Amino acid sequence: MTVEALQVPAYRTFAVRVSRLRRLSPSFLRVTFTGPDLGDCAPNGWDQRIKVLLPLAGRGVSDCPTGADWYAEWRALPAERRNPIRTYTVRAARPEAREIDVDFVLHGATGPASAWAEQAAVEDEVALVGPNARFPGPTGGFEWRPPADASCLLVAGDETAVPAICAIVESLPAGQPARVLLEVPTTADVLPVAAPAGVEVTWLPRRTAETAAPPAHGALLTAAVVRAVQELPGRARPSPQAALDDVDVDAGILWEVPADEAVGRATSGPYAWLAGEAGMVKPLRRHLVQEAGLDRGSVAFMGYWRQGKPSN
Ligand SMILES: Cc1cc2nc3c(=O)[nH]c(=O)nc-3n(C[C@H](O)[C@H](O)[C@H](O)COP(=O)(O)OP(=O)(O)OC[C@H]3O[C@@H](n4cnc5c(N)ncnc54)[C@H](O)[C@@H]3O)c2cc1C
N or C: which end of the chain has fewer CB within 10 A? Predict the structure, then answer.
């Protein structure tokens, strides 16, 4: 590899503007971004994450970093000039049209990303940090890495994981057995998803015409995962002693994914991918590994946000 190639960063910033807005449902807004360099953004598909740098009042995105080490540049700015950063999923990418779709959950003006999305208009400017097509190696930034011989796939998450899960489902090969569980705020948030044969998709709306009071966030998904895992083929025996570090989700991030060396290892057991509110994911982690007997190297657990805490 040449010295020049080694200097190309795996991730870089892209100056973009909103080219289209589509309200998919009460809780989801699809924002299509376009930018002159987006043809050089190379998402890997699946649950590819990117960073969105949101405008600052009065300064917009004029302070957003543009250099090779975007994060160091951002950190070096005085706090009041640092654009807020939040993590989102690439729902779809069309490099030839220099476009990326991101589906934002609208949860009110309680955080900079949701507040921005609630008011978003065509031509609004933000910056994205995404994988760089010019980088000579793998750019990563996704966690969907099931072993080729998994007996069954279990994919579950709340509304923030819906964009990732829909992208994963639509990329699965036909005939791959998979159980997919998605908890969303209301029945109107059930979105169309093109699931191949063999994939069973269940939407779990918290608020329906029949519900007087919606259940707590995550309660429906938790119950559905516990039920679904009992029926997964190829599980090992429960191992209550399986070592699990305690994760304090109030202090840190819950992000436990198979180590690189475990990826692709033959297991012939189930593979599970779970994402959403961290307080919901944490007990499911314990259940799947210690009570349901899933191999810890075959489960990805990701806290996408934390109730009552900003994600910064
Ligand atoms: C890898 C990854 C991929 C993600 N992909 C997506 C995606 O594609 N679409 C998406 O919408 N989100 C996605 N998220 C989640 C998103 O980053 C968080 O919801 C983030 O907190 C939103 O930022 P904010 O500025 O709106 O709120 P913050 O400033 O982070 O938080 C402010 C308040 O809002 C609350 N809050 C945050 N999110 C929600 C929510 N969804 N519902 C209710 N209350 C909430 C917080 O608890 C806090 O009290 C992803 C997260 C990760 C880690």
Answer: N
Range(s) within the chain of domains with CATH label 2.40.30.10? 3-131
| Ligand 1 within 6 A of CB of 58 | no
**Ligand 1 nearest atom to the CA of residue 113, by list position:** 25
Q: Is 46 in the pocket of ligand 1 (CB under 6 A)?
A: no
2 pLDDT band (50/70/90 cuts)? low
Instruction: Confirm or reject: Cβ of 144 under 6 Å from ligand 1.
Output: no
- The segment(s) of the chain belonging to CATH 3.40.50.80 are 153-305
Fold of 153-305: Rossmann fold (3.40.50)
Assigned fold of 3-131? Elongation Factor Tu (Ef-tu); domain 3 (2.40.30)
Which atom of ligand 1 lies nearest, measured to the CA of 84?
25
As a three-state string, the secondary structure of the chain is CCHHHHCCCCEEEEEEEEEEEEECCCCEEEEEEECCCHHHECCCCCCCEEEEECCECCCECCCCCCCCCHHHHHHHCCHHHCCCEEEEECCEEEHHHCEEEEEEECCCCCCHHHHHHHHCCCCCEEEEEEEECCCCCCCCCCCCCCCCCCCCEEEEECHHHHHHHHHHHHHCCCCCCEEEEEEEEEHHHCCCCCCCCCEEEEEEEEECCCCCCCCCCCHHHHHHHHHHHHCCCCCCCCCCCCCCCCCCCCCCCCEECCCHHHCCCCCCCCEEEEEEEHHHHHHHHHHHHHHCCCCHHHEEEEEEEECCECCC
For the ranges 42-56, 118-132, 141-155, 232-246, which has the lowest average pLDDT? 232-246
- Stated pTM of the model: 0.95
